[in-house]
Design brief:
The chain has 181 residues and is mainly α. It has one domain. It is globular and about 45 Å long. The chain starts with a helix and ends with a helix.
Length: 181
C-alpha cells in the first residue's frame, strides 16, 4: 500500500504544482490537493524515518537552486513542517546499505541540479526530460526490487514516477494546446 501512497503522492504533488502555476485551479481544489499531499506524506513518513529524512533533504536541496518556486506559503511550509516527520518517525530509523547510499546520492544530486536544467514552464525539452525521469524512476523501482534496496528508496522512486508521469502528460497537453518551443 505504501508504494501506492508514494505514487499518488508524487502524482498529486505535480497536479497541484502544474495546475496552480498555470492558474488552472482555485480555492477548494488547491486545498484538497494540499491536504492530500500532507495526508500522503504523513502516511509515507509515519513509520519510515529514512524516507522522511531523504524527502526533507532532497526538497531542501531543490529549494537551494529553485527558491523562486519554493518561496510561497504552501511550499515554504513543507520545508518548515516536514522535520516533524523526523521526530514522529525517529524510532523507525534503520541502517542504509551501500546500494541505498548510492541511490540517495544520485537522487540528491538530481534534486539539486534539476532546477538548473528545467527553468521554463513548458517546452519540448522539459517534456523529454520528464519522460526520461519516468523511465529512470521505473528502472529504479525494478533495480531496487531486484537488489533489495530499502523500501524507503523504492517509495521515493514510486513518488518520482507519479510526479514525472503527470508532468510528462501535462507537458504534452501544454505543447499541443499552444505553440511553445
Amino acid at each position: 500500500m505504501e508504494y501506492l501512497y508514494a505514487f499518488l503522492g508524487g502524482l498529486l504533488c505535480k497536479v497541484y504544482d502544474d495546475l496552480n502555476d498555470n492558474s488552472m485551479i482555485g480555492g477548494h481544489s488547491q486545498e484538497i490537493l494540499k491536504g492530500s499531499q500532507w495526508i500522503l506524506l504523513t502516511l509515507l513518513s509515519y513509520n519510515d524515518f529514512n524516507f522522511a529524512l531523504f524527502d526533507f533533504i532532497a526538497n531542501g536541496l531543490n529549494a537551494l537552486n529553485n527558491w523562486e518556486e519554493w518561496n510561497h506559503p504552501y511550499e515554504t511550509s513543507l520545508l518548515w513542517l516536514t522535520p516533524l516527520f523526523l521526530l514522529i518517525s525517529f524510532s523507525s530509523r534503520s541502517m542504509l546499505s551501500v546500494y541505498d547510499i548510492i541511490y540517495i546520492i544520485v537522487w540528491f544530486t538530481t534534486m539539486y541540479l534539476e532546477p538548473l536544467f528545467v527553468t521554463e514552464e513548458s517546452s519540448k525539452r522539459k517534456l523529454y526530460l520528464r519522460i526520461l525521469g519516468s523511465i529512470n524512476a521505473a528502472i529504479s523501482i525494478l533495480i531496487g526490487l531486484y537488489f533489495g534496496i530499502s523500501t524507503s528508496c523504492i517509495k521515493i522512486s514510486f513518488y518520482c514516477l507519479g510526479y514525472c508521469l503527470f508532468s510528462s502528460g501535462f507537458q504534452a497537453y501544454l505543447l499541443t494546446r499552444s505553440p511553445i518551443a
